[in-house]
Backbone:
């Protein structure tokens, strides 16, 4: 089935009520048939609902539908995009290990991997997503994950997937792609050879800024890369916290299963059933919305490129953009609604942001309402001047999340703000 059909139907089988809309199972716990049934569920001899921190029927539809759109084997819903990224790291790395992260990532990912993860004894090494050959010198026996974004936020770069995957596979290292900006409608990293995808469902998935949530999806047959791989011994050895379970021996998607049974169980960053229901509503219109976000962003990028006060426009849909070849190769149906442009300095950037009327100053993206952000003073404020340059976030950079308003109105709003 095509994406637009999967977005409406995947993962849901109507029960005896015949409800067309996915029900909200707003419950924390579930009644077992008897004591043996409960014991079998906990021992994984039967599959079923145990507790909403681990699984929920509404969240199950959200997970299955998202995994279907990504072309993956299974999904795991989380309470936020940041918890999805943290779980992806914690599922493979421990004290003494290292992960390799692109310099060009979302500010929250930068602080997580550059500061918080250090307190867990995990080292972060950085590579320039524009120069994937740097990975060769960074990978060693303790490297557990290569993390990058399909469309970087806010520098708006599109990586060379083929080059990154080739190096990662040669060393048996898992790749994890944050596909939030592109969404599975415009980019399918798993089909490009990547191993894991993470998302902030708070963005385009919900589409209206209604809920905080995240998603992890693993590719089909990931066990082939993990089974017997000394980098991931804990997937191949008995888990003492789960009756000696060996994940790589199970006929189930193993990455999300371990994240569910170990990380959701112990750390508890699970989505609420109501939020999962909101994401399901958003997914139903995601293919249509991404087309419109992309079309409007393209028009705005072309407008900004002609403005005298604009030094540079970052949008891979522009033929002049350095990322245009990669966008043509790896993105399909548009380049999303996120773009950025650079003006002379921070003062001018803030003045423009303060002067828009339709674009609102908000630190979010993927909303139906258009958003303007000055990353250097907000989402990336914690970075040094050099770190800002490395991340592709100069002081005069302005990020736009183009919403679903009439594009001519958005262009008029930007025009008057630039002329002030």
Residues:
């Amino acid at each position: 089935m095509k994406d637009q059909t999967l977005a409406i139907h995947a993962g849901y089988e109507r029960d005896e009520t015949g409800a067309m809309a996915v029900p909200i199972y707003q419950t924390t716990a579930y009644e077992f048939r008897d004591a043996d049934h409960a014991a079998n569920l906990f021992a994984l001899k039967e599959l079923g609902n145990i507790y909403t921190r681990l699984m929920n029927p509404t969240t199950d539809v959200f997970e299955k539908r998202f995994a279907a759109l990504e072309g993956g084997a299974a999904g795991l819903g989380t309470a936020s995009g940041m918890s999805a990224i943290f779980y992806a790291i914690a599922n493979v790395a421990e004290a003494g290990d290292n992960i390799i992260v692109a310099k060009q990532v979302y500010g929250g990912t930068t602080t997580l991997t550059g500061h918080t993860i250090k307190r867990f004894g995990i080292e972060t090494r950085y590579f320039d997503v524009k120069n994937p050959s740097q990975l060769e010198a960074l990978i060693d026996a303790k490297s557990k994950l290569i993390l990058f974004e399909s469309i970087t936020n806010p520098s708006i770069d599109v990586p060379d997937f083929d080059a990154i995957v080739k190096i990662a596979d040669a060393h048996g290292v898992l790749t994890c792609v944050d596909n939030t900006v592109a969404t599975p409608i415009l980019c399918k990293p798993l089909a490009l050879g990547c191993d894991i995808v993470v998302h902030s469902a708070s963005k385009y998935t919900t589409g209206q800024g209604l809920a905080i949530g995240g998603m992890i999806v693993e590719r089909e047959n990931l066990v082939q890369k993990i089974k017997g791989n000394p980098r991931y011994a804990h997937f191949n050895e008995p888990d003492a916290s789960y009756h000696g379970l060996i994940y790589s021996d199970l006929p189930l998607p193993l990455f999300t299963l371990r994240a569910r049974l170990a990380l959701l169980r112990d750390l508890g960053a699970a989505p609420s059933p109501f939020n999962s229901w909101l994401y399901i509503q958003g997914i139903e219109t995601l293919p249509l919305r991404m087309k419109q976000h992309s079309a409007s962003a393209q028009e705005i990028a072309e407008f900004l490129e002609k403005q005298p006060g604009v030094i540079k426009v970052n949008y891979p849909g522009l033929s002049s953009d350095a990322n245009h070849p990669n966008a043509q190769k790896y993105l399909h149906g548009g380049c999303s609604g996120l773009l950025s442009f650079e003006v002379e300095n921070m003062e001018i950037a803030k003045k423009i942001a303060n002067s828009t009327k339709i674009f609102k100053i908000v630190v979010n993206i993927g909303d139906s309402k258009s958003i303007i952000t000055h990353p250097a003073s907000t989402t990336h404020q914690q970075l040094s001047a050099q770190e800002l340059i490395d991340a592709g976030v100069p002081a005069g950079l302005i990020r736009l999340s183009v919403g679903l308003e009439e594009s001519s109105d958005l262009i008029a709003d930007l025009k008057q703000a630039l002329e002030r």
